[in-house]
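Researcher: Structure prediction, please.
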Amino acid sequence: MKNLGTLYSYELRKLLTKRMAWVTTLLLSALMVYTACSPPSAAYGSTFTRTDREGHTTSQYLSMAEQDKIKREGDRSIRGLPMDEEFFRQIRALPLFSGEYLLTDRAEVSSYFMAEDPRFSWAYSMIESIPNLNAATVTEEQFYTAREQLLEQTWRTQGLSEQEAAYWRAMETRVTKPFVYQNIWGSRDLLDTQPVFLSEVIPLTAAVFLCGVFSEDKRARTDVLVFSSRHGWLPLCLAKALAGCTAVLAGSGVILGSTAAAIFLTREVPGLDAAVQLRCLRSSFPMTMGQAVALMWSLLLLYGLLCGGITLLISAWTRSSVAALTAPALLVLMQMMRIPFPAWMGEYMPNQLFDSMSTLSDVRLLRLFGVTLNKLQFGFLLYGLLTILLLSLCWLGWRRSAEGRSH
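Model: Predicted structure follows.
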């Protein structure tokens, strides 16, 4: 074990100098940057129509780019306002509810906010998402009381025990109220859209970096020499695994870092200090949007290690670079095709776990060794334990190959 550091440095240098791995990582980074920064189309759009009390109809065409700009900048003047009684009084006083416009359907409401006054568009959608609330008459007390009733109803519907409901009530007491209104359109990109896309490219990075870690000696016909010292098997296996984990973190970090940098450099990203409830009213997590983003992106790095563990395991047991390269690609394909899994398994698959709305609003709890864990906490624990298990199984495959070649 005294040579572990030397072996680790040697194995890491081999991985970090793989040209094809870095080319693939940079191409995937470029793809994610393009996806994150690609502006809404100016060639497509919608026509917004509103009718006044006299029956006069006005229509206005707005491109997708114009709509996106209005959404992101429209409520600039009300950012930072507490969602108290004065805030809801301003909503009730909108011309939208004074009878000036004929509101026959939700399209008419959308047209008003898009073409007339976009300030309270997101606040309106929050109010209307709670059953039995009317934005034209809502008060501060009604809003927070109705939200509390909605949470209680959700807990009952999900079949939570009184102890589990008490857990969420305790979490809810730590949520600051009244909420402070913020524009969250920019931070939504980091929380909602990007994690799912990133979870589909990270396995490919792990595959190209690590597919040959345990199989390259067989290909180069140096395995007999490598396995000639029985006491060196374990240190070399540990060095390969640790170097593989480091390389995956480096590759994943490049992709995540370039994506985040591109978003922050090309657009305004307000709302990171907003309560996560502004995005997900059913959530009782006492955190900000920025904290939720940090947790999701940290979980992505852990997922990178898990994908690395899968690649290393297949490489160790099959001694085939092709098999180790194919397995993570199949995992990505399964995500993209939305192949159904049993409920107990499916909710922790990447396409479900990195769906922020689903994860942040999930109220099911698990109790392990006297500790209560929510879905996000258990996701970290599960991915971490699976990574350790996969890396441990690599040793069994490596030792089997070593014993087979040393005799």
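Model: The CA atoms of residues 273 and 321 lie 45 Å apart.
Researcher: Thanks, that helps.
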